[in-house]
Amino acid sequence: MTALPPSIVARALLLLTICSTVSAQFPAPRCCETYCYSQDSDRTQVKHFATKTAYEVIHGPSSSREHIVPNCRPSKFWLLSRHGTRLPGKKAISALPQTLKNLRDSILDNYDVRRTRPDVGRMCPDDLELLRNWRWDSNITTDYESFLTAQGWNDLKFLAKREQDRFYEVFNGPYVRENYLFRHTKTQRTEASFRAFADGLFGDGAYVHVKPEPEPADDTLLKPYDFCPAYDANKDRNKDANSEQSKFLRSPLFLQTLSDISTRLGFQYNLSVDQVEAMWDQCRFEQAWHIQEYSPWCSVFTKEQVNVLEYKEDLGYYYQNSYGYPKAADLACYAVSDMIRHLARPENPTVIGYFTHETEIQLFLNALGAKQDREAPRADNYYAMRNRQFRSSELTPFAANVAAVRYQCTDPREPVKVIFFLNEKALMFDWCKVGLCDWSEVQRRYQRYTEGNCAKLYCGGSGAKRVNVGEGFIMLVSVVLTVVLAAIARK
Predict the structure, then answer these.
(1) Partner of 400 at 20 to 30 A CA spacing, among 52, 238, 424, 473?
(2) Is 31 part of a structural domain of the chain?
(3) Where do runs of H (alpha helix) occur along 32-182?
(4) Is the pLDDT assigned to residue 483 strictly greater than 50?
């Protein structure tokens, strides 16, 4: 065999080096990890479904002893709770049945007919069978949009029973109106959540005898964000192309995740964000409705893909309702002030329970200064934020709640203590002793909400109240009279 000239050998080696370098920088398209949802007994991803996470997989254990404080007894219980598991909203119920049926049929065709399934990381036969047998529940119609489900009722009923067992000194005896103050927003899901909580405390059907306080026209206590134009403006800004969530949707990581999901399902093109979110929402809802069962739509995602979808949602919540929005804490002024006012008084009511929505819980946690990360989550730091404090799945699942419990203690220096609980787990603040906070320090930390004027602090002093036509007319007349009188005086 004739030897090749040295120059040609050198060129060939150079070409091989270049090819290997390019290959390292631009690896061949990958698909997915091998994963079978139907055969996974742990299913740890169900704890990462953002605000549609089931409460049962998040709340603290009944066996916890964090509420037991030596030489102290509970004397007052204040609760801010999100409603329990609900049905989808009207828009989703109208669109999801057909959208999901089309996706399901296409996925099955990709596997059974077109044979476009990936070589590695394909769906397992058991997961495909789950999808094959899936049908939309015909009982879920727009007549029941956002209604509390049976699981949602149990979320609140058994929360009440556990809290009653923990704090039996406060929850003692039958219902007496003077001892209990309840209130909920004007929605079926929060009203039903209140009733379930009352049943948990006083027995099945007891809610008919438990009278909640009426909700005011402008409920700045439980829905402050509904009456603040500045909040709406910030919400709109978070939809802009420059928001962290929008940038994350355009990031290589998220685009690769879309590609991986599409490839795993056998598609030769990328599914849209809306299509992926339709499957993601149905997965989360079904898993929250039927905790012990397998949702067919959860089988289309691997665990890492779920983490990416969760992070996308967290970016939205962080900059809308939490530390990414500088005015978020002030929106919770009325709620913090109410909590401090009730905890400060030893007299009745001894149990205060409010039933609201995820936004209010996130705003309130911000005002407390709870679950704050050293670094803000951004579009470009997903991996650095894997162990972040701000995780909506853990903060505001269905039935999320914050409880503040006042303790009367024998400590002569600080006889009153407070423990804050998030989803039945003690919140740890660096200014408290393993969750046990001195009352004087609680007052000092939150004095801007109690000593200030919430009407001025809330929403920057604007938007706290709607101005009706009559009020507007009076204001206009007042301004005109002022101008006229000033003109007369100058003459």
Answers:
(1) 238
(2) no
(3) 90-112, 125-132, 150-166
(4) no
